Amino acid sequence: MHSTQSLTPFFQPHSIAIIGATDNPKKIGYAITKNILENPKGNYKISLVSYKKGEILGHLAVSSILDLNQTIDLAIVLVPARFVESIISECIKKKVKSIIIVTAGFGEMGISGKNVQNRIAKQVHEANIRLIGPNCVGIQNISFGLNASFIQKPLAGGISMITQSGSIGAACIWEFNAQDMGMAKFTNLGNAADVQFYEILEYYSSDPETQVIAIYLESLQEGRQFYEMLQKVTRKKPVIILKGGTSTKGMQAAQSHTGSLSSNFSVFQAMVHQAGGILCDTLDEFITALKTFSYVPLPQGAKIAVVTGSGGSSVLFSDYAERFGFHFAIFSPELEKELGSHLIELVKMENPLDMIASADENTFYHVTKTLLASPEIDIIVPCSLVPPFLEQEPQSHMRGVLHAWQETGQKKPIIPLMVYGEMFPELQTLRRTHRFPLFFTPKEAATAVKYLLIRFKYLNRISRH
Amino acid sequence: MHSTQSLTPFFQPHSIAIIGATDNPKKIGYAITKNILENPKGNYKISLVSYKKGEILGHLAVSSILDLNQTIDLAIVLVPARFVESIISECIKKKVKSIIIVTAGFGEMGISGKNVQNRIAKQVHEANIRLIGPNCVGIQNISFGLNASFIQKPLAGGISMITQSGSIGAACIWEFNAQDMGMAKFTNLGNAADVQFYEILEYYSSDPETQVIAIYLESLQEGRQFYEMLQKVTRKKPVIILKGGTSTKGMQAAQSHTGSLSSNFSVFQAMVHQAGGILCDTLDEFITALKTFSYVPLPQGAKIAVVTGSGGSSVLFSDYAERFGFHFAIFSPELEKELGSHLIELVKMENPLDMIASADENTFYHVTKTLLASPEIDIIVPCSLVPPFLEQEPQSHMRGVLHAWQETGQKKPIIPLMVYGEMFPELQTLRRTHRFPLFFTPKEAATAVKYLLIRFKYLNRISRH
User: Fold this and answer.
1) Is A168 in Cβ contact with B313 (below 8 Å)?
2) Residue A55 has what DSSP assignment?
3) Which DSSP string do the residues of B249-294 spell out, in sequence order?
4) What is the pLDDT of residues B382-398, one digit of tens each?
5) Cα separation, A140 vs A148, whole angstroms
6) Using the beta-carbon criterion (under 8 Å), do A247 and B310 form an inter-chain contact?
7) Given A168, A284, A388, which is nearest B170 (Cβ)?
8) How close B246 comes to chain A (CA, Å)?
9) CB contact under 8 A, A254 and B315
10) How far is A283 from chain B (nearest CA, A)?
11) Which stretches does DSSP call E strand in A136-292?
């Protein structure tokens, strides 16, 4: 077993060599060369290596890494697959500390590619060098200013991701950006010839910037170590997992994709649950889970209150709530009286509390605040929709909810449901400026509550042992 | 039983009386008054009725509908609940042809409200007048230029909706707008004291502008008639259904919402399947189904091909595909050869066909066109993501797919999957300008294929009887 320190040169390199650097904008190597050259914090020195030598994007390239004088923390290999083995030999001679092989065409191509991949893994292992890839888009460390990948940079924040698929990683970053969710670290493992999921998981676990860990995986080579690590890490941080290749057909596709056999899904499922991880069924649920733990504090209990200006939304929310086994609080006469003082007579004192269409910003403010202040309630789900009438502003209801939340110290989880509100800039501003959480369908809001309760109950269970 | 002609005065009125018209922008009646006054096609005459009399929004109001000289096709009632019964008596005296009661505070409030509602329903029935509502946002007929509701107007198109919940209807219209999906008719039934789902369903069935029918319902008063009508209508048009109140808790919420008891869900489910309707589990699936039938032609068989530039997306698509029981085609040697001529050597000839990250617009164009032209394939799922590298345009892959589709006459269904691409204006333009379908998660694309196959198999089954 390696220590997590062996991963530091990947995420905090002070010198990087890009082997196969290019200024040809049609090559993937160009994007990664440009991204590394950006170096906004000036944290690392960059050396370019290219068989062409000469100047590349304003930097003089040498023809071999062995021609460099300085030591190299991280070597990034972009050359075509047939040259990779000899480049790795040079990296070993140069005693680089870590290597990312971006190049594809190894284990995912079948037996002969797998053999080359295994040979490379054995060589670097013997040389005590760590290797990420091959067949990956690279890694990122946002606060360090490092984008050692050919994909786009996320916003800064608390999500750290390990993904087997580069494209799923890139797609998630688009969606994170769209929902103002920021990242700390990003790692695409690709074929995972050396560095494994459980190692990055451990690294993220002790990373102070990482608040929630996201894992997309298709196959595991080290199931036992992963399970044991997951069990440790979930005590500290929520770990959200999406698994590709859960079906026979999906497994075949996964094998072509990253060259590894997918494990039996029901075994995997049981393992994740046992270890306290949160396993999602879809990409949307994966985003929802990460959003929930990024924006919302954990509940101190499981009693839910729903307040709504949109009857249909709370009906649908209630359907999923029952399916997920939630407990709706029964309001005490005192709480009913307090709520009633802010509501018109037509409103029936029930939970879900349907305040009907006349509820405005003020109503949402007072009712949400009453519920946030009440010891009878642990989680509040305020439902609304962007009002298409009365010349109301799209964000007015949720502004009322936000003020109530702010004035009570943002201590209790709220899951504001704004049905199909994602396209309204006014709501996006509320989210961006005040870290106000927003959920967009009844199922999404119910799923968010479900994940909060899973985490709450898990932490409760382990604290009793 | 009434004939569907009894519904014509709702959707094509030549004279409308707004009873309770107001210019107070804080009242819901203001929004509906303004929407009706807009009258962009000049298809109807408008009379305003208000106890205040005088001028409202530039129109002279009378104090009673009985003061009007002309006949009234459609009376819209906005007055407070306690005045509604006497207003209805006046409408009956005036012999209006149809009435919409927007006002809430009837059956959804409990026994006494239910009694008033029943009395009103009996009176209008005896007078041979049809009634929509009470407790509804109103109706719309887009091509007629009629927005007799207090919610926003959709784009023009082929979806016609019947919804029990006004807010779910309004939320759907936001999402339809966001995804360039247009509507023909909109009806919110609210408490459904008189006009029932099956009647609007029949009306839409014979409406030449309606291509696909959307139903959101929480409860059915006339289950038998609905079933029989559904069975007839699904032979002509796809009918997409979302049911709220599928759980005990949801049923209670529904009862507060529209005052009617929700029926047993498993009975309902079996009934819809038997009658050839498409029952969705979530609001997102409801939108996906409507999008699919709005944008995509029906397949002539069930053989699916997946082409991808994003390995992870097709792995996840394959997982749902297997869960839904799809058949992936096995490419013949001839088709493999033809596909291979457009691909680099690294690509393995399989289905899903992973063209790896180097696939560009041209690759997508040629490969999709080959599959569209092949009798071996009935449905094509081109997967991509917005490329975050190589300075590619967000829409380039899908532009390749579009050209292939256009050049083959748009006869075969394509389900283009662009993972988390909804926020890119370039993709939106492709959709708006060319009616190009776009799906945004692997689950959504798989769900779209599922609905196409349900419809294909249902039409096959009934054509054999």
Assistant:
1) yes
2) E
3) HHHHHHHHHHS-PPPPHHHHHHHHHHTT-EEESSHHHHHHHHHHHH
4) 999 888 776 778 999 99
5) 6
6) no
7) A388
8) 6
9) yes
10) 7
11) 138-141, 146-149, 156-163, 183-188, 212-217, 239-243, 278-280
Which of chain A's residues have a Cβ under 8 Å away from the Cβ of B30? 390
Residues of B in contact with A319 (CB under 8 A): 244-247, 249-250
CB-count exposure of residue A334 (10 Å: 0-12, 13-18, 19+): exposed
Q: B184 is written with which tokens?
A: 């023909």
ipTM score: 0.94
Q: Which residues of A touch B315 (CB under 8 A)?
A: 165, 218, 244-245, 250, 253-254, 257
Taking alpha carbons only, the member of B160, B139, B138, B155 closest to residue B239 is B160
- B321: CB partners within 8 A, 6+ apart: A247, A249, B304, B306, B328, B446, B449
Q: For B287, which residue in chain A has the nearest alpha carbon? A: A420
Residue A42 CA to residue A60 CA, distance in Å, equals: 18
In this prediction, residue B102 has a pLDDT band, given cuts at 50, 70 and 90, of very high
**Exposed/middle/buried for residue A426 (C-beta within 10 Å: 0-12, 13-18, 19+):** middle
Over chain A (465 residues), the average pLDDT of each successive run of 10 is 85 98 89 94 96 89 96 97 97 98 91 95 97 96 97 97 95 97 97 96 98 94 92 98 85 63 77 96 98 97 94 92 93 96 89 85 96 98 85 90 97 97 94 97 98 97 85
| Contact yes or no for A319 and B244 at CB 8 A | yes
Instruction: Determine whether the interchain pair B443/A164 forms a contact, defined as Cβ–Cβ distance below 8 Å.
Output: no
B151 vs A contacts (CB less than 8 Å): 388-389
Instruction: Give the containing element (helix H, strand E) for B242.
Output: strand B239-243
Strand partners, B56: B59
B257 and A164 within 8 Å at the Cβ level: the answer is: no
* Helix B442-463 × helix B311-323 angle, to 10°: 40
